[in-house]
Structure prediction request, 282 residues.
Amino acid sequence: MDLINFRVGQKTISLKILDILLTERYEGDLTSLPNENPSFLGVKDYMGTPTPIFDLGIILNKKSSYDINNALVELLKNKEEEHRQWLQALERSVIKGQDFDKARDPKQCSFGQWLANFKTENEDLKAILSRFEEPHNRLHALADKLLTLCEQDKKQQAITMLEKERATTYIKLMRLFESAREQISLDHKPIIVFTTQDGHKPHIGLLVDQVEDNIHCEEDEIKSLSEITNIGFEIDPQTKKMMQGLIKRGNTHSVLIDPSSIFRPEHLQGYEPEETESYGLF
Prediction:
Protein backbone atom coordinates (compact mmCIF):
# COMPACT_ATOMS: atom_id res chain seq x y z
CA MET A 1 0.00 0.00 0.00
CA ASP A 2 1.48 3.34 -1.08
CA LEU A 3 0.72 6.33 1.14
CA ILE A 4 1.46 10.04 1.39
CA ASN A 5 2.00 11.61 4.80
CA PHE A 6 0.68 15.06 5.67
CA ARG A 7 1.31 17.27 8.68
CA VAL A 8 -1.73 18.57 10.60
CA GLY A 9 -0.67 20.53 13.67
CA GLN A 10 1.56 18.21 15.72
CA LYS A 11 0.10 15.11 14.09
CA THR A 12 0.96 13.20 10.94
CA ILE A 13 -1.82 11.62 8.90
CA SER A 14 -1.55 9.21 5.97
CA LEU A 15 -3.72 8.92 2.88
CA LYS A 16 -3.64 6.20 0.28
CA ILE A 17 -2.21 7.51 -2.98
CA LEU A 18 -5.23 6.07 -4.79
CA ASP A 19 -7.50 8.26 -2.61
CA ILE A 20 -5.72 11.46 -3.70
CA LEU A 21 -6.70 13.30 -6.86
CA LEU A 22 -4.36 16.29 -6.48
CA THR A 23 -3.09 18.91 -4.06
CA GLU A 24 -3.47 22.66 -4.36
CA ARG A 25 -2.30 25.62 -2.32
CA TYR A 26 -5.10 27.02 -0.16
CA GLU A 27 -5.83 30.66 -0.92
CA GLY A 28 -9.04 31.01 1.10
CA ASP A 29 -11.09 31.34 -2.09
CA LEU A 30 -14.04 29.19 -1.05
CA THR A 31 -17.79 29.71 -1.38
CA SER A 32 -19.38 29.78 2.05
CA LEU A 33 -22.51 27.78 2.71
CA PRO A 34 -24.52 27.55 5.94
CA ASN A 35 -23.53 24.46 7.87
CA GLU A 36 -23.33 23.46 11.52
CA ASN A 37 -20.18 21.38 11.07
CA PRO A 38 -17.29 23.57 12.36
CA SER A 39 -14.76 21.71 10.20
CA PHE A 40 -16.66 22.51 6.98
CA LEU A 41 -14.95 25.56 5.44
CA GLY A 42 -16.93 25.97 2.25
CA VAL A 43 -17.09 24.76 -1.34
CA LYS A 44 -14.66 24.95 -4.22
CA ASP A 45 -15.57 24.12 -7.81
CA TYR A 46 -13.19 21.65 -9.33
CA MET A 47 -13.74 20.33 -12.86
CA GLY A 48 -17.42 21.28 -12.61
CA THR A 49 -17.88 19.43 -9.33
CA PRO A 50 -18.77 21.46 -6.21
CA THR A 51 -16.30 20.03 -3.71
CA PRO A 52 -16.73 20.56 0.05
CA ILE A 53 -13.55 21.50 1.89
CA PHE A 54 -12.99 20.35 5.47
CA ASP A 55 -10.35 21.56 7.91
CA LEU A 56 -8.60 18.41 9.07
CA GLY A 57 -7.01 20.36 11.92
CA ILE A 58 -10.42 21.02 13.45
CA ILE A 59 -11.45 17.39 12.96
CA LEU A 60 -8.30 15.98 14.60
CA ASN A 61 -7.26 18.73 17.02
CA LYS A 62 -10.56 20.51 17.76
CA LYS A 63 -8.87 23.70 16.56
CA SER A 64 -7.59 24.91 13.22
CA SER A 65 -3.83 25.18 12.69
CA TYR A 66 -4.42 28.83 11.79
CA ASP A 67 -5.91 29.51 15.23
CA ILE A 68 -3.21 27.45 16.96
CA ASN A 69 -0.48 29.43 15.20
CA ASN A 70 -2.16 32.76 15.98
CA ALA A 71 -2.38 31.79 19.65
CA LEU A 72 1.34 30.93 19.64
CA VAL A 73 2.22 34.25 17.99
CA GLU A 74 0.14 36.07 20.62
CA LEU A 75 1.87 34.13 23.42
CA LEU A 76 5.29 35.18 22.12
CA LYS A 77 4.13 38.81 21.93
CA ASN A 78 3.08 38.61 25.57
CA LYS A 79 6.38 37.04 26.62
CA GLU A 80 8.29 39.73 24.77
CA GLU A 81 6.29 42.41 26.56
CA GLU A 82 6.94 40.70 29.91
CA HIS A 83 10.69 40.98 29.33
CA ARG A 84 10.37 44.60 28.27
CA GLN A 85 8.61 45.29 31.57
CA TRP A 86 11.22 43.18 33.39
CA LEU A 87 14.05 45.38 32.14
CA GLN A 88 12.12 48.58 32.92
CA ALA A 89 11.56 47.34 36.48
CA LEU A 90 15.26 46.59 36.84
CA GLU A 91 16.12 50.06 35.53
CA ARG A 92 13.81 51.68 38.10
CA SER A 93 15.42 49.60 40.82
CA VAL A 94 18.94 50.63 39.79
CA ILE A 95 18.24 54.33 39.19
CA LYS A 96 15.48 55.06 41.70
CA GLY A 97 16.13 52.38 44.30
CA GLN A 98 12.71 50.77 43.88
CA ASP A 99 12.22 47.18 45.01
CA PHE A 100 12.77 44.61 42.26
CA ASP A 101 10.26 41.76 42.48
CA LYS A 102 10.69 40.14 39.06
CA ALA A 103 12.14 36.66 38.47
CA ARG A 104 15.92 36.54 38.68
CA ASP A 105 16.22 32.85 37.88
CA PRO A 106 15.48 32.26 34.15
CA LYS A 107 14.01 28.87 35.05
CA GLN A 108 11.46 30.58 37.29
CA CYS A 109 10.49 32.99 34.53
CA SER A 110 7.17 31.97 32.88
CA PHE A 111 8.79 32.14 29.45
CA GLY A 112 11.72 30.04 30.60
CA GLN A 113 9.32 27.40 31.89
CA TRP A 114 7.31 27.49 28.66
CA LEU A 115 10.48 27.24 26.57
CA ALA A 116 11.68 24.18 28.48
CA ASN A 117 8.42 22.32 27.84
CA PHE A 118 7.36 23.49 24.39
CA LYS A 119 7.58 20.91 21.59
CA THR A 120 7.34 21.54 17.87
CA GLU A 121 7.92 19.60 14.66
CA ASN A 122 8.84 22.81 12.84
CA GLU A 123 12.61 22.47 12.47
CA ASP A 124 13.15 26.14 11.58
CA LEU A 125 11.18 27.31 14.62
CA LYS A 126 12.99 24.75 16.77
CA ALA A 127 16.33 26.22 15.64
CA ILE A 128 15.22 29.77 16.54
CA LEU A 129 13.93 28.74 19.96
CA SER A 130 17.22 26.97 20.72
CA ARG A 131 18.98 30.35 20.42
CA PHE A 132 16.91 31.91 23.21
CA GLU A 133 18.68 30.21 26.11
CA GLU A 134 21.93 32.20 26.08
CA PRO A 135 20.51 35.77 25.95
CA HIS A 136 17.56 34.85 28.16
CA ASN A 137 19.82 33.43 30.88
CA ARG A 138 22.22 36.35 30.55
CA LEU A 139 19.47 38.93 30.89
CA HIS A 140 18.06 37.37 34.06
CA ALA A 141 21.54 37.03 35.55
CA LEU A 142 21.89 40.79 35.12
CA ALA A 143 19.54 41.49 38.04
CA ASP A 144 21.81 40.04 40.72
CA LYS A 145 24.89 41.71 39.23
CA LEU A 146 23.37 45.19 39.05
CA LEU A 147 21.63 45.08 42.42
CA THR A 148 24.82 43.86 44.06
CA LEU A 149 26.73 46.80 42.54
CA CYS A 150 24.08 49.18 43.87
CA GLU A 151 24.42 47.68 47.34
CA GLN A 152 28.17 48.36 47.07
CA ASP A 153 27.52 52.03 46.19
CA LYS A 154 28.60 51.45 42.58
CA LYS A 155 25.44 52.83 41.03
CA GLN A 156 27.13 54.43 38.01
CA GLN A 157 28.90 51.18 37.17
CA ALA A 158 25.54 49.41 37.37
CA ILE A 159 23.94 51.97 35.05
CA THR A 160 26.77 51.60 32.53
CA MET A 161 26.44 47.83 32.58
CA LEU A 162 22.66 48.10 32.21
CA GLU A 163 22.95 50.28 29.11
CA LYS A 164 25.50 47.95 27.55
CA GLU A 165 23.32 44.89 28.08
CA ARG A 166 20.26 46.76 26.85
CA ALA A 167 22.02 47.44 23.55
CA THR A 168 23.30 43.87 23.16
CA THR A 169 21.68 41.03 25.12
CA TYR A 170 18.24 42.62 25.36
CA ILE A 171 18.15 43.60 21.66
CA LYS A 172 19.22 40.09 20.70
CA LEU A 173 16.39 38.63 22.77
CA MET A 174 13.83 40.99 21.22
CA ARG A 175 14.98 40.08 17.71
CA LEU A 176 14.61 36.39 18.52
CA PHE A 177 11.02 36.96 19.62
CA GLU A 178 10.36 38.74 16.33
CA SER A 179 12.06 35.99 14.30
CA ALA A 180 10.07 33.27 16.04
CA ARG A 181 6.77 35.03 15.33
CA GLU A 182 7.71 35.59 11.69
CA GLN A 183 8.69 31.95 11.30
CA ILE A 184 5.34 30.78 12.64
CA SER A 185 3.41 33.11 10.32
CA LEU A 186 5.48 32.53 7.18
CA ASP A 187 5.77 28.79 7.59
CA HIS A 188 2.03 28.16 7.59
CA LYS A 189 1.12 27.62 3.92
CA PRO A 190 -1.77 25.17 4.04
CA ILE A 191 -2.83 23.06 1.10
CA ILE A 192 -6.04 21.37 0.04
CA VAL A 193 -5.84 17.66 -0.67
CA PHE A 194 -8.61 16.77 -3.12
CA THR A 195 -9.65 13.19 -2.49
CA THR A 196 -11.52 10.87 -4.80
CA GLN A 197 -13.58 7.71 -4.59
CA ASP A 198 -13.48 6.71 -8.26
CA GLY A 199 -10.09 8.05 -9.32
CA HIS A 200 -11.64 10.72 -11.55
CA LYS A 201 -14.05 13.04 -9.73
CA PRO A 202 -13.26 14.88 -6.48
CA HIS A 203 -15.16 13.73 -3.42
CA ILE A 204 -14.02 16.16 -0.68
CA GLY A 205 -11.04 18.40 -0.01
CA LEU A 206 -9.02 18.24 3.20
CA LEU A 207 -7.10 21.24 4.49
CA VAL A 208 -3.68 20.20 5.85
CA ASP A 209 -0.56 22.09 6.88
CA GLN A 210 1.98 20.51 4.56
CA VAL A 211 3.08 17.45 2.63
CA GLU A 212 5.73 15.42 4.44
CA ASP A 213 6.74 12.31 2.49
CA ASN A 214 5.49 9.15 0.83
CA ILE A 215 5.86 5.64 2.23
CA HIS A 216 5.02 2.05 1.38
CA CYS A 217 3.16 0.15 4.08
CA GLU A 218 2.04 -3.45 4.41
CA GLU A 219 -1.38 -4.25 5.85
CA ASP A 220 0.11 -5.94 8.92
CA GLU A 221 1.97 -2.72 9.82
CA ILE A 222 -1.32 -0.93 10.56
CA LYS A 223 -2.12 -1.11 14.27
CA SER A 224 -5.51 -0.88 15.96
CA LEU A 225 -7.36 2.28 16.98
CA SER A 226 -6.68 1.53 20.65
CA GLU A 227 -3.04 2.52 20.11
CA ILE A 228 -4.09 5.87 18.67
CA THR A 229 -5.70 6.90 21.94
CA ASN A 230 -2.30 6.46 23.61
CA ILE A 231 -0.69 9.18 21.47
CA GLY A 232 -2.99 12.07 22.24
CA PHE A 233 -6.13 11.61 20.16
CA GLU A 234 -9.50 12.28 21.72
CA ILE A 235 -11.66 10.27 19.35
CA ASP A 236 -15.21 11.46 18.79
CA PRO A 237 -17.61 9.47 16.56
CA GLN A 238 -16.85 11.49 13.40
CA THR A 239 -13.10 11.21 13.87
CA LYS A 240 -13.20 7.55 14.87
CA LYS A 241 -15.14 6.66 11.74
CA MET A 242 -12.47 8.11 9.45
CA MET A 243 -9.48 6.54 11.22
CA GLN A 244 -8.31 3.18 9.91
CA GLY A 245 -5.34 2.64 12.18
CA LEU A 246 -1.89 3.67 13.34
CA ILE A 247 1.26 3.23 11.28
CA LYS A 248 4.44 3.15 13.35
CA ARG A 249 7.93 3.46 11.90
CA GLY A 250 10.69 3.60 14.52
CA ASN A 251 9.95 6.57 16.77
CA THR A 252 7.51 8.13 14.33
CA HIS A 253 3.87 7.33 13.75
CA SER A 254 1.06 8.44 11.48
CA VAL A 255 -2.67 7.86 11.41
CA LEU A 256 -4.20 6.29 8.32
CA ILE A 257 -7.51 7.94 7.49
CA ASP A 258 -10.34 7.18 5.08
CA PRO A 259 -11.64 10.46 3.58
CA SER A 260 -14.72 8.72 2.14
CA SER A 261 -16.11 8.50 5.68
CA ILE A 262 -16.62 12.28 5.67
CA PHE A 263 -19.93 12.78 3.93
CA ARG A 264 -20.68 15.53 1.46
CA PRO A 265 -23.25 17.96 2.94
CA GLU A 266 -26.76 17.26 1.68
CA HIS A 267 -27.38 20.85 0.66
CA LEU A 268 -24.69 20.55 -2.03
CA GLN A 269 -27.18 18.56 -4.10
CA GLY A 270 -28.78 21.82 -5.22
CA TYR A 271 -25.55 23.80 -5.49
CA GLU A 272 -24.80 25.16 -8.95
CA PRO A 273 -21.06 25.22 -9.73
CA GLU A 274 -19.56 28.51 -10.83
CA GLU A 275 -17.30 28.94 -13.82
CA THR A 276 -13.74 28.93 -12.55
CA GLU A 277 -10.29 28.69 -14.04
CA SER A 278 -8.51 25.36 -14.05
CA TYR A 279 -6.40 24.68 -11.03
CA GLY A 280 -2.87 23.42 -11.62
CA LEU A 281 -0.79 20.99 -9.67
CA PHE A 282 2.16 22.25 -7.64
Summary: The longest strand covers residues 2-8.
